[in-house]
Amino acid sequence: MLFTRDLRVHDHPALVDAVRSSDEVVPLFVLDPALLARSPNRARLLLEGLRDLDRALRGRGGRLILRRGDVAETALRVAREAGVRRVLVTGGVSRTAVSRELRLERELRALGIELRVLPGAYAVEPGAVATSSGGAYRVFTPYYRAWLGAPRRSVLPPPRAVRVPPEIPSEPLPDPAQVRIDAEDLLRGGEEAARQRLDRFLRRGLSRYGERRDALEEGGSSRLSADLRFGFLSATEVAVRAATLPGAEAFLRQLAWRDFYAQLLRHDPRLAWRDLRPGPARPAPQLDPEVALEAWLRGRTGIPLVDAAMRQLWREGWMHNRARMVVASFLARRLAIPWQEGARLFARLLADGDPASNAGNWQWAAGTGTDPRPGRTFNPVRQARRFDPDGTYVRRYVDELADVPPPLIFAPWREPALLASRRYPAPIVPVAGA
Ligand SMILES: Cc1cc2nc3c(=O)[nH]c(=O)nc-3n(C[C@H](O)[C@H](O)[C@H](O)COP(=O)(O)OP(=O)(O)OC[C@H]3O[C@@H](n4cnc5c(N)ncnc54)[C@H](O)[C@@H]3O)c2cc1C
Fold first, then answer.
1. Is any atom of ligand 1 closer than 6 Å to the C-beta of 257?
2. At 281, is the pLDDT very low, low, confident or very high (cuts 50, 70, 90)?
3. Domains and CATH numbers, the chain
4. Which of 74, 122, 314, 387 is paired with 4 by a 20 to 30 Å CA distance?
5. Could you count the other beta carbons within 10 Å of the beta carbon of residue 120?
6. What H or E segment, with its residue span, contains residue 86?
7. Nearest CA to ligand 1 atom 44
8. 336-383 residue pLDDT tens
């Protein structure tokens, strides 16, 4: 059983299949140092997740086998070493996952070993619903209609016992604290913390999710994105449990966005970095793009909502969805910087960083993707007035403005003396709507 982005024991089709079809299972995770280096925040969560998974397997009489190296190559080596008959893996959608599956398929077959790719990462798997011509959906609304009607597999209980051959050695699990991170308030990774978050959200958050999800200061969304990203939670379980409760509709719709972008990336891996369709003409930049990008990244644009959002990203490795739309639109449209630059920095910092959702949303915001209104932009001042009317969100993250009340907090440049006394920058570009 090769674990990748499915670091859990609950509702795990591949693990259940492995345990059912064989007396002994090798639960393998391969740490690829190249992948680990991409994002310290995610590396921390991953290592916490591996600890949890090992604990959960030990609770069932097994243990996690950890190796380092290239994933496919190492998995092939362990498969030979252990003399297995089949390798199970949860299907992925990124270029890395798909090429890994193809390589494993080919090279395992040459050894007379079967590769079984099972569902488990999505509520509705890519390809489970398709357009009348058999392709991926490029527009969300018809996809969502099909998604709602798609058959759901049933949620699987965790296996009672996992027997692991005693002679297969494992490297020691690395200490998550070894990964140095900038984020002070990164959530804790692993299945146990994820299940607590899910229970809490279903009990307390879901019923008001529809009305609160957009309010920047309230924390009305589930915060389950990283748990879904690493597979600490199964999207099927999340969807099935939510569906029985009041207020589920708005939440299921967001889960469907995740599957929507996954089926698009599965269909065309170039989506991760290349425009899905030509975007609106980009205006000439008013600033040196390098200076503008640095100000954006550091939360020093002088536009309070943009700065609060980027500082939230640094502090928590997470950003509110509406704030993501605002900063993405600001970068791609107002600063005229290619969306790929923003996506690259998001991919480094986000605990939930995921090629399908990240690129899909960036393209949506830049007007090069799936938005049926590609001309749509977000004005950061109007967005702040509407979704952070008391300025609480901005004050939480922008210390310089911690005691500035509305309406001044939406446009502090109106009082130049205030900017000077707080050492808060003037806006790097003029902002309409103030
Ligand atoms: C520019 C930009 C980049 C983004 N990059 C990522 C990314 O790398 N990884 C990621 O998981 N999400 C990304 N999102 C989508 C969204 O912002 C996050 O999923 C959401 O904020 C996570 O918080 P939550 O779990 O509280 O969401 P909730 O509102 O509670 O939603 C529940 C779940 O639905 C899914 N979801 C919600 N909104 C979206 C969406 N627009 N697209 C895809 N899935 C969604 C997530 O898995 C989320 O956990 C991005 C959005 C934008 C605008």
1. yes
2. confident
3. 2-121 (3.40.50.620), 124-155+190-267 (1.25.40.80), 289-422 (1.10.579.10)
4. 314
5. 27
6. strand 86-90
7. 258
8. 999 999 999 999 999 999 999 999 999 999 999 998 888 899 999 999
